[in-house]
Amino acid sequence: MEMQKYICLLLVCALGVDGSCIESEKQALLIFKETLIDDSNYFSSWVGDDCCAWHGIGCDNITNHVTQLKLRNGNIGGKIHPFLLDLKYLTHLDLSYNRFDGIQIPEFFGSFKDLIYLNLGHSNFEGSVPHHLGNLSNLQYLDLSDYEDSWVPKLRMDSIRWLSKLSLAEHLDLSGVNLSNATDWFSSLNMLSKFISVLGLSRCNLPDNIPRRLPFMNLTSLVSFDLSNNYLSSSFPLWVLNNTNLAHLYLGYCNFDGLIPESIGSLSALSVLDLTVNSFQGPIPHSITNLTSLSELYFTDNKLSGSISPEMGNLTELTDLSMWLNSFKGSLPETFCQLKKLKSLNVGKNRLTGNIPECIGKLSNLNELILVENSWEGFVTEHHFINLTKLNILLISSDSELILSISSKWVPRFQLICLYMYSFKVGPKFPHWLLTQRKIEALKLSNASISDTIPIDWFLSLFSNSPGVDLSNNDIYGDQLSLISRAPNGLAALILSNNRLSGEFPAFLCNQTTLRTLALSHNNFSGELPQCLGNLTELIELDLMNNSLSGKIPSLGFLGDLQYINLHNNKFQGKFPLSFQNLTKLFVLDVGKNNLSDVLPTWSAEQLPNLKYLILRSNNFYGEIPLQLCQQSTIEVLNFADNQITGNIPACFGNFSAMVTGDISPNHLDYWGSVQMIDSMKGYEQVYTSTLEFLFSIDLSNNKISGEIPKELMDLQGLLNLNLAGNHLAGKIPDEIGKLKNLIFLDLSRNELHGPIPQSLSYLNFLSQLNLSFNDLSGRIPSGNQLQTLNDPSIYAGNELLCGLPILKPCAADTNSRNVKDGHNEADTDSVSDDELMWFFAALGPGFAVGLLGFFAALRFSDIGIYTSILVNRFMRK
């Protein structure tokens, strides 16, 4: 050994190596540095003669040749100079987590013949990945992945066949590279290196040409396989099961369906199985309970059903288990209490019943316990939390009778950062133990049967930590909030709707400049809104509906992110704020049921390009409907009822293209609370929350509008509600009214309409409420289809010249026909024919059923929960 060291020393001396780096390589590095952008001063150490001592440089201990260039997370960008090729002995090149925006991966990277490690991930390279990288015959590690939140791939590959030339490759990560044109991707998998142990193909837009079975699978060394976030739309890929060494399998967000195969139990080495967000159905395969090496198991958001096997308790290595958003039923097995290593347990949004096992309190490693939206019963006591010293996320709710029964002296051994206890009897008082929680970042105690005043000191302590506080739907009372002068700034959402809070609007909220959601609806707040609300520049949602607020509406025109304003049913006076036209992101504006007095507002579609819901009902707006409104093609709900509006209905209302198609466009409101809106659908005020996006409505009732009903209005085939009652409309009901095929509610009463009722009205198969009373309509009332269910004579009252069913007034033609047929005189015929009556009532059954089904199909009412954004990413994998 001593002789070998001596020979090496002689060789070093012979080569003239003096212990510092090679001069030509140092110069190449300096030229490389000059073409880069270094805003973070990452290269500050690149001074002096010995480049081997520079940050990120590694040299061979004997030859002093540069062999490693590791510039990971350097925040560098710019161009990569080809002088880098002078580093002929480079084995490791790491440029990951940088910002080479708009730069293609240089082709000359394929000339580093000794390269073993190449990491270009998360550095914003763009364009086509050069196939020249296939020349790197010694390469073992290749990472071209992009950021997980980058859903628009920057890199692309039209073929991956050249990857087969990397015969020594062990780690290959192409996650985020666009492979949509790589139709050879699947056949190329079997040509990859037999040494591949890690293969990442997440978010690659892979072509949907995946077979369910393969005759063989060559990747016998595969330990980690990530196929997630590809829209593959097939059943479970059975060929994956050939890789018996697999430890990590990620198949989330792939649109897989069908059953999870029982043969998945053959993957005996599996420690991570992620099937998040697919459409798998049926029960969990029993064989999964044999995978005793599993540490992470995610069934999140599928269509799985059946009961949860008690043998899941055999998976004692589990640290993370998520069954969120499925249809599991039955009880939660007490064998789960054997999972001593469990850190996260998520069985939220299922159909589980029975008691929550008390022994869960013995899972001392648990930091996340998510049990929301099931049908739990019984009591939750301090024994459920007895050893949960690490717990920081607790979410419990039930649609059954679940009661919190905890001693007033109990002090928990944990400090929560997130607490959701909603639809869960926590009250009647704010629990004392809750006041000990000083680190809460998100709090939801909605519908918790609390009847109490707010503990102010504790409440204010939440402001500096919490992104969201929701105490809605309780019986909280008092005016303490009006007495607060200042509070720590930091709150993102405050939701106190549906309580009995009183006093003036809490002025301290003006200092909460981080607020994005403010919902105080359905309380007893009074007085004026302060002008300082204009300070809340991050506000997105403002809901003050159903209070007693008065005075002028303050200027909110500088709140550029505001999307939702609901001031419905207050006592506001004065003019409509012109500043609203500056709110370019606004999509809901409701100032209905106030005392505003003004002409109808005018603005161009360019000013409010996203406006969908405009509610001005029950004020004192006057004048004609401005034609500029017709440019607002996005309108889905327009309610000007109960005002003093004159003039005609503009024919250009036919430009409301959203109502023409009835296509449901998503509401892009980024909110913490629940958006709600009131409309007079079905003749009375109704609150819409989760069904808001399904509502298409025009209500101009109880004004002074004249002229005819424009036939262009009949082009709005998506309309569900059309209410023009209580105006001075004349002329005929347009024959084209049968085109409104989705109409559920139609009210044209108390106008001056004349002529016959169009037969096409019978084409409206979903019509459930109709009112044509008090006009001058004449002739036979149409019959057939859904009209047979509308048998209340009052809907045609006040039209003396109408005849036929259901008003039981015979038509002249019917009388003459019967007289000729039966030889009776007119005095003997006081009603419609027996045959017609029998046919009419026989049709009620099926007609009513069709209408009822249509009504519910159109509305699709359902309740939605409220979840803060702090948990979304966490839950989607858990």
Automatic annotation (TrEMBL):
- According to its record, what are the GO cellular component terms? plasma membrane
Indicate the segments forming the Leucine-rich repeat-containing N-terminal plant-type domain, all copies.
23-60
For this protein, the record's Gene3D superfamilies field holds: Ribonuclease Inhibitor
* Residues of the signal peptide: 1-19
Q: Name the PANTHER family for this protein.
A: LRR RECEPTOR-LIKE KINASE, RECEPTOR LIKE PROTEIN 30-LIKE
Q: Where are the transmembrane segments?
A: 837-859
| Annotated Pfam families | LRR_1, LRR_8, LRRNT_2
Record organism: Daucus carota subsp. sativus (Carrot)
InterPro entries (UniProt xref) = Leu-rich_rpt, Leu-rich_rpt_typical-subtyp, LRR_dom_sf, LRR_N_plant-typ, RLP23-like
Quick one: where is this thing mainly located? membrane
* Gene Ontology process terms (BP): defense response; response to other organism
Q: Where in the cell is it found?
A: Cell membrane
* Protein name, per record: Leucine-rich repeat-containing N-terminal plant-type domain-containing protein
Membrane topology per the record?
Answer: Single-pass type I membrane protein
The UniProt similarity line reads:
Belongs to the RLP family.
What are the alphabetically sorted keywords of the record? Cell membrane, Glycoprotein, Leucine-rich repeat, Membrane, Repeat, Signal, Transmembrane, Transmembrane helix
